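Deliverable D5.2: sample structural annotation.
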Amino acid sequence: MQVAIPLFPRFTALDAVGPYEVLQRVPDAEVIFVGHRRGEVRSDNGMLGILCDARFDEVSEPDVLVVPGGIGTRMLLDDAELLDWVRNAHTHTRFTASVCTGSLLLAAAGLLDGLTASTHWSAVDLLEHLGARYVQQRVVEHLPQRIITSAGVSSGIDMALRLVELLADAETARAIQLLIEYDPQPPFDSGALTKAGEDVRRRAAQLRH
C-alpha cells in the first residue's frame, strides 16, 4: 500500500510528519514524499528540510493521499501541475486526506465542492471561497467520496489514526497509538478558538507572522 505525501516550499512540518509517523507503521505500507522535483523541501520557517524521493509524475496511483498544509499552500492554489496531480491521484486512492490548510489544495482541485470540511481556523474564509463548507471539527469524513479533512497541525495525527482504522482495523489503530504514546494531556486548554480568550488570540495572530 503506497501512501503519498506531497511537499512544497513552506509546508508545516507536523502536518506531514505527524501522519507519516502513524501511517508508516501500518503493515505493508510505504510512505513516499513527492513533489514538483526530487530533493530537499524546506518547511514554513525554513528551519527543517525533508527530501522528496519522487516527482509527481512518478507517483500516479497512490492508495492513500495525505496533503499537508502550511503558508505555502496559498502560492499553489493556481498551480496546475499540483492540482492536476491531486485530481488524478484521487481517482485511484482508497482515501484522500488533508491536514490543516492542505484542505485548500483539495478545494482548489475541486474535490470539496459543496462538502463540509475542516482546516486551520485562520483559513476558514478562503476555504469557503474555494467551494467547501467549513465545520469546526478536528476530523471531517465523507467516506462515500473517500475524503477526510482535518483541522490544524496536531489534528493530522487524529486523522491518520482514523485512516489506520479504515485501512486495517481498530486494534491496529489502537496499537499504533500506543506505539507512538499518543495520549494528549496538554498543560493548557486553549487549542481551539472557542477555548482561547481574546489575549491568546491576539498573541497567536502575532506569532503567525
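Annotation notes: Residues 2-184 form a domain with the Rossmann fold fold (CATH 3.40.50.880). The longest helix spans residues 155-167.
The annotation will be released with the project's public dataset once the embargo ends.
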